[in-house]
Amino acid sequence: MRKPNRRDFILKAFVGGVAAVCAGCLLLKGSRMKYLPDLAASIPEAFFSGSPFSDPSFSDYPSSELIRESDKTEKSQGREAMYYTRLERNRVRCDLCHRSCIIAQGRRGFCRNRENRQGKLYNVVYGRPSAVHTDPVEKEPQHHMLPGSEMLSIGTAGCNFRCLHCHNWHLSQHSIEEIGRYHSYTPHEAVNYAIELDVAIISSTYNEPTVFFEYVLDIARIAKKEGLRILWHSNGYIQPLPLKELLQYTDAVTIDLKGFSRKAYDNSSAEPGPVLKTLQIIKEAGVWLEIVNLVIPTINDSSREIEDMCVWIRDNLSPEVPLHFSRFFPNYKLTHISATPIDTLERALKTAHKVGLQYVTLGNVPGHEYNSTFCPQCSKILIRRVHFTVVENNISDGRCSSCGHSIPGIWS
Ligand code: SF4
Fold this sequence. Notes:
Largest sheet: 8 strands, mixed
Strand order of the largest sheet: 7-8-9-10-11-12-13-14
Bound molecules: iron/sulfur cluster
Number of helices: 11
Structural class: alpha/beta
Distance between the termini: 31 Å
């Protein structure tokens, strides 16, 4: 088992840290949109239909059109996928995420990670993470989970979104062969490595964990037996069945909510409805949930959209779900838009407070007062942070040490 070394550090620096898990938009060639029949009335119907990506004209493209077939060596790698349906003529339908790709023999799905070999679907990145590193849990971000703890972060290749602004596009928008480097860690080896490093948490992050689902799940099953905590950072486009299975072995989830409009999700080649449904399922499962909203000027920064999103979170999840407004910086294919003005973020924060959300912070603004978490009861600082560093923790036995107010989260 090879340990991360200087090359790994360089790779990590290359991919640009955690930030938001991949997302972005390109043409959604060849994927098929499917939405939940049990659509919750609380999710706007427009968030499930009428997207240009649902237009049948987009389904003329083979899903793996842009993906070269891997060579024979690569074909011997991977693990059979858990959620798929065999179809006629050796085709398969992947049932893991809401793209529901139909994949022909020898081709891969939209995420570049799932390959049809003789009518069986394989996850080709299983046991082959392209990024392995330790990070503070605050970087995920998770503000109510073991503050100041280190986690072992694991990412692979590929993504089921095409966010134009993706900060980790070097990983997320390439296949494992295109990245050209990876570690070999079985799930047992990954867990042993976390134990060796003496970290409290294993996080599946950097790229979308859904697209390496079987690896995430196997690591989680083993890690739970060893007393480690399991976290993952996702765009929330996973189907309900695999989601519920993974939640059984999960302590906390960070979900990127790209906005509260079709426009915001067009920027990520997706639909908002399934993501909102995922948020509800996580909350109902009793798994600790935090939400990140990357505020991008002209894409999702209108006062109305931010207020609607905050109201939906309050009414359908809980006012106690932490919401992180994160600052956008030009990146990948969204370089013509300037960084988010600080006052836009402060306005968003004020709106969230006005709506009644209790734990709202600002990210990607190192040193801002609202890197820190405040008690909703007495307004004293609960956790003082400077960027990702915890400098003061005033939570004792899950309560504010000033007024005794109970603070939800994972504290021990
Ligand atoms: S996980 Fe990948 S192959 Fe499966 S439906 Fe989603 S994008 Fe398609």
